[in-house]
Amino acid sequence: MMRLLASTVAAQCGLAIRITKTTSALSFCVQSPVASAVRSRSMCSSAPGAKERRLQVGASTVHFVEAGDGNRGVILLPGALGTAWTDFKPQIEGLPALLPHHRVIAWDPPGYGKSRPPDKQFTVDFYERDAAAAGELMQKLGFQRYSVVGWSDGGITGLVLAAKQPERVEKLVVWGSNSYISDTEANIYEGIRDVSKWSARMREPMEQVYGVEHFPKLWSAWVDGLLRIHHERKGDICSGSLKHIKAPTLVVHGAKDPMIIPDHVPYLLNNIKNTDLHVFPDGKHNIHLRYANEFNAIVAKFLLA
């Protein structure tokens, strides 16, 4: 799989960008990273001061976690099949102290985790549907404007939301995300379809959420959904919409992320008007878990600037 070094990103981007090297030990209740295309996720599901809530959003009853009591909002959007707790426990725990004027909202997208039944239908517009639901949730919580922090699939949802509702999104942070699917990535997705080939450490958090028998079926449906976008849309998820994003955007990148090809980082930087970049040279796909303290500090600084 292809790798991207920080120096390569700088050379490829025709923009003035800041690259900060970050190294640190693992913190919070997360798993050690493994040399795999799929991220490790935490199985822990509690944090002091966090409240679990549900709201009706369209046809879905959406489960989310709320932490902090500020009057500004930030929503955390998890990756594929991800939930608030599997994907963002270190952020639910750590960000409220760094963002005392914000309420941190971490959701289970419709069809995932506790925002079921029913399971998600991976139509070619499922990112658009998630973006619309996330925006509706934040407005129902009283936020007319808010910031968006999205990982992997959640970053894609964030890009779509910021492009579709530019007047609503104050700031945007994405990592491990792409606005189109290349042939190489279609092969990557097909290669990780069979979860029986994953290590037990990689499977267990998702098996805890979806069950040992059901998780492989839902994961395979996700793969089919991405391949459907690759085939029916020629891989275009939201590339043509990036120009509509008005929010200052921070692209965070793990230079050894095996889930996205190198082209995506400069593509985002060159097609979103107001962007900055932070690179973790040794980071893979789960940099917010592996480098939780540093990641949280970087995000907080950007949102407060």
Automatic annotation (TrEMBL):
Gene3D superfamilies: alpha/beta hydrolase. It comes from the Eukaryota. One of its GO terms (molecular function) is serine hydrolase activity. Residues 74-203 form the AB hydrolase-1 domain. Pfam families: Abhydrolase_1. PANTHER family: VALACYCLOVIR HYDROLASE. This is AB hydrolase-1 domain-containing protein. It comes from Anopheles arabiensis (Mosquito). The lineage of its organism: Eukaryota, Metazoa, Ecdysozoa, Arthropoda, Hexapoda.
